[in-house]
């Protein structure tokens, strides 16, 4: 067990509405989500003594957010460089600060105008820009890995549709979700490719919004049981990878089970980072939640309906994965016992287990 296991609780969660054009600054979004998380935890923002965030030069710095919240004396604070890889591991940062006695209440937030502002999947093609042929941005890179993964597993477009369609079905009753409409196989196949084999429906929503968590050592809530972070040569470094399909979960899953003392069968809700549809079966396999031989049937029979019950990044929205952590807290409050949360960044990433 990790020294901080069980010492930190996610006592509050807050989110702004998720939109495609917020009409607001990242600072305003972050402050609103942070106030909501503090209110949910039953504390005033001034009781926060640590602020953490992660971003890719597309958000409001933590000192500005602290000032907007009226936090007069700010303790440990950090703007962490990174995107999806930080989704789960920032819980570990907060838990370690609490365990070390450096903080009592840690505010964690992610805010971005990911649709109306800086968009991750838009690249410059100006004369000064140079790109590896065919890999101009994350989608082409992960599409290449997806092509090999589908070949190796025998999965097809029908199985990718099952992932996306179930995501839409799960989101149907979620008022926060940007996509709630059903998606038939015919509708899915009619969607244009972004980069084969990934269609527009296979890619997560580009979203404006913010999400915040209040992680506490003195308040009650779902507990941080284990957090791991790591990676290896995989789809983020294809020129050095023996297996271009090896995403972060291939490396962090064994670490997570060893650190937590739990087993895959203990997990009763999974919040998987579904930036692209093919990542769902890959993570199910890596974390031991479904075997490779059964993946095809597992998906077509919709036995993965327990994954991302809010619709995930494919349907609810994309707040760089922190909205998945918020949903894990909701699920544990509602009676689930163990939630798995993951953070994807190619062959590097993180994972956490939260317990009721």
Can you walk me through this structure?
This protein is an alpha/beta fold and 356 residues long. 33% of the residues lie in helices and 19% in strands. It contains eleven helices and eleven strands. It has a five-stranded mixed sheet, sandwiched between helices. Strand 2, helix 2 and strand 3 form a beta-alpha-beta unit. Helix 1 packs across helix 2. The longest helix is centred in the first third of the chain and has 16 residues. The model has no long low-confidence stretch (mean pLDDT 95).
Question: What would you say about this model in short?
Answer:
The protein is an alpha/beta fold. The strands form 3 sheets. A 5-stranded mixed beta sheet has the order 1-7-4-2-3, with helices on both faces. A 4-stranded mixed beta sheet has the order 8-11-10-9, with helices on both faces. The two termini are 17 Å apart.
List keywords for this structure.
33% helix; 356 residues; alpha/beta; globular; 4-stranded mixed β-sheet
SSE layout and pairings?
Blueprint: E1 9-15, H1 26-41, E2 50-55, H2 62-69, E3 77-81, H3 86-99, E4 105-113, H4 138-153, H5 157-171, H6 185-190, E5 193-195, E6 198-199, E7 208-216, E8 223-231, H7 249-260, E9 269-271, H8 279-286, H9 295-300, H10 312-315, H11 322-333, E10 338-344, E11 348-355
Parallel strand pairs: 2-3, 2-4, 9-10
Antiparallel strand pairs: 1-7, 4-7, 5-6, 8-11, 10-11
């Amino acid at each position: 067990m990790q020294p901080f296991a069980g010492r930190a609780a996610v006592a509050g969660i807050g989110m702004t509405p998720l939109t495609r054009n917020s009409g607001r600054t990242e600072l305003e979004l972050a402050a609103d989500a942070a106030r909501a998380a503090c209110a949910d935890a039953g504390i005033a923002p001034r009781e926060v003594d640590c602020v953490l965030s992660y971003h890719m030069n597309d958000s409001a710095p933590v000192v500005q957010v602290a000032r907007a919240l009226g936090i007069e004396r700010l303790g440990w604070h950090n703007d962490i460089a990174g995107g999806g890889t930080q989704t789960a591991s920032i819980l570990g940062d907060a838990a370690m600060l609490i365990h070390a006695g450096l903080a009592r209440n840690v505010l964690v937030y992610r805010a971005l105008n990911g649709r109306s502002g800086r968009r991750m999947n838009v690249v410059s093609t100006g004369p000064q820009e140079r790109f590896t042929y065919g890999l101009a941005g994350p989608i082409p890179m992960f599409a290449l890995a997806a092509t090999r993964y589908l070949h190796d597993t025998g999965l097809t477009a029908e199985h990718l549709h099952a992932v996306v369609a179930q995501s839409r079905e799960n989101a149907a009753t979620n008022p926060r979700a940007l996509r709630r409409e059903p998606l038939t196989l015919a509708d899915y196949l009619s969607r244009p490719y972004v980069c084969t084999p990934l269609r527009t429906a296979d890619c997560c929503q580009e979203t404006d919004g913010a999400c915040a968590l209040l992680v506490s050592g003195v308040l009650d809530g779902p507990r941080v049981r284990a957090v791991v972070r790591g990676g290896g040569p995989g789809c983020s470094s294809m020129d050095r990878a023996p297996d271009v399909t090896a995403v972060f979960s291939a490396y962090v899953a064994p670490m997570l089970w060893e650190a937590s003392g739990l087993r895959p069968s203990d997990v009763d809700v999974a919040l998987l980072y579904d930036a692209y549809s093919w990542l769902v079966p890959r993570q199910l396999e890596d974390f031991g939640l479904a075997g490779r031989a059964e993946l095809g049937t597992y998906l077509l029979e919709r036995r993965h309906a327990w994954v991302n019950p809010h619709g995930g990044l494919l349907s609810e929205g994309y707040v760089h994965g922190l909205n998945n952590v918020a949903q894990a807290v909701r699920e544990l409050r509602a009676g689930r016992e163990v939630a798995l949360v993951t953070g994807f960044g190619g062959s590097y990433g993180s994972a956490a287990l939260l317990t009721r």
